[in-house]
Amino acid sequence: MQNVLDKYFYPKSLCIVGASSKPGSIGYELTRSVKEYGFTGELLLVNPKAEELLGYKCYPSVNDITSSIDLAIVLVPKKFVEQTITDLVNKNVKAIILVTAGFKETGKEGAEEEERILKIIKEAGARLVGPNCMGIINTQDEIKMNATFVAEKPQNGKMAFCSQSGAIGAAVLNTLRETDIRFSHFISVGNKADITENDLLEYWQKDDNISVITYYLESFEDGEKFTKYFIDGEVTKPVVVVKGGRTASGIKAASSHTGALGSSDKVVDAIMDQFGIIRADDLNDLFNIAKGFENFPMPQGNRIAVVTNAGGPSILTVDSLEKHGLTLAELTEETKSELRKFAPPQGSVNNPVDLLPGGTAEQFKRANELLAADINVDAVVSVFVEPVMVKALPVIEAINDIQSSVPIFQVVMPLPEFWEEYRRESKTKKPLFRNPENPAPVIAGMLKFKNRQTGDNRIKRNDSVSLNLNFEKYKDRFLTQEDVTVLADYYNLPVIKTTLVNVNDIGSVDIEYPAVLKAVGEEIIHKSDLKGVVLDIQNKKELLAEAEKMLESFNGMNIPVEAFMIQPYIQTKFELLVGGFRDPSFGPMVMFGTGGKYVEYYDDTVIRSAYLTGRDVDEMINGTKIGKIIRGVRGEQPVDMEGVKNAIKSVAQMMVNHKQITECDLNPLIVTGNNKLFAVDVRIKC
């Protein structure tokens, strides 16, 4: 069955509804872009006030067109949109792009109008891109479609680019001649009322004309679905994302420590790390990384050699390499010996190799060849600053001629006229980088894709779990301790022996001492803050006295105490946190790190999607300071690491299995003096 997105990117006929004869208007400029770029299909224009536009016949309305329409682009004023969409679906048009703005992005009334349009689309079995977008491009010779209102003529490449922002998309297209960005497909998705980044990810994975998938996104429409393609192993092409909104206020205010620590940008970072999605800091890095995949061999490791003719840029290069987790390669003595044969004596044959300002094209070529051939080198960064006595083009071209399975990334800082000369005269036109900091994120991104997890066993949803718990009664509330115990027992959470007792029965309880007394109640969330915890109670007399004081205190705050929780008092060596929360977009998440009442202040936590692998669990533990400590430092015995891992996996499985659970905390998960694990406080919220 043909994918409807074929009609978007490979249409045989394109209808522009709202084509205008007024230069400067969107309707005119988009029509002109389609014509001048050389669209190979049939172009159908709708304009009731004109008979002809740019040499094409105009139809008074959609209903007057007798030809079949593969793709329709709607540019009419907002008040005509609903009727236009209705006319198109009545003609069996399945692919529609709505460029017109003024819908969900403007408020409640616009959102309601958008919903009405979407209802028409869905009932007709059609699909919609937009509204509030800027169009679509396919650069391949058999299509040649620039259906945007930017009059650039993009060159064909193997990259696909989706922009949520029309303005960002336009800005990128306007810089094509300067940046030499090449792509196969471009699409602006605007409000993402129907077609989202998820549809495009699935489609582009199967399109042989695409080798790298790139996005500018301000939100993930359904992050859990987006990650499912990676979880299921369906993504085999590099995916690079610039995600706007790093400083957003984060997820809805949460009452558990885990929820409070899981801000939205941390979640995005965690998801991308976990699934091998490359997060670029900005558009420059986004397209540089895409060029890396398209034009360079894959680095086999993170050992980098640097050759330069200027000290300052090489320092910036090295700083950037270290920032991105890359290291300077240790050159072999053989390589250094060969370098000494032609390198200036005042220069350096250590890494970075410095050929000084007089370094010639031949010297640069030979140095790069030697570094690329060194068994300790996985990639080379060549940095050339153009001096008066050595022209840039011969140096760059000499290095471009090197045939090597080890990638060589060239940074050139030339006179302004070089760039036009390079575009005009270069035989290879390989991508060059303008700043010494540029190659590091490219190499790091390529390695992230290379080292991504594939084929690992992940935690999966188990639909056969039957616990006889009524989660619905807990909407926006914490579970009672009795129901927490049911879940803890089922998922083998390492909960310490706990006795629950009615406030009136505290005098008849039979327990061992020393003990811990805790107040239990729906409004008693952070017990320590409310003085709802007393440690190291030595006997029954102390127990009764502390219970009475606690009741008086809570009565004074008008907070009801429903029961008392009594646990054995244990000596604490470390306090850990294992938790879970449900992100509004990406679904179930888990967290590990330093626990206790100061958890937010330590900020020593790592989060991941709950669809974990064993490698994910190891990376969570190793990614924290406390994780390194509990493995055993300075001769100490390591903690029960299997127990820690099992606690993380158990919370993850619980979060995946039960969509009703929004937050879960094992805080603190105590490590005792003899390295045993006990969760002394477990809270679960729906």
Task: Please tell me about this protein's structure.
The protein is α/β, with parallel strands linked by helices and 686 residues long. It has four domains: 5-244, Rossmann fold (3-Layer(aba) Sandwich), CATH 3.40.50; 296-450, Succinyl-CoA synthetase domains (Rossmann fold); 497-568, Dna Ligase, domain 1 (2-Layer Sandwich), CATH 3.30.1490.20; 572-685, ATP-grasp fold, B domain (D-amino Acid Aminotransferase, Chain A, domain 1). It has 23 helices and 29 strands. The strands form five sheets. It has a seven-stranded mixed β-sheet with strand order 3-4-2-1-5-6-7. Strands 9-8-11-10-12-13-14 form a seven-stranded mixed β-sheet, with helices on both faces. A hairpin with a 2-residue loop joins strand 3 (52-53) and strand 4. Helix 3 runs parallel beside helix 4 (108-123), helix 7 (197-205) runs parallel beside helix 8 (223-231) and helix 11 packs across helix 17 (439-450). The longest helix is centred in the C-terminal third of the chain and has 17 residues, at 540-556.
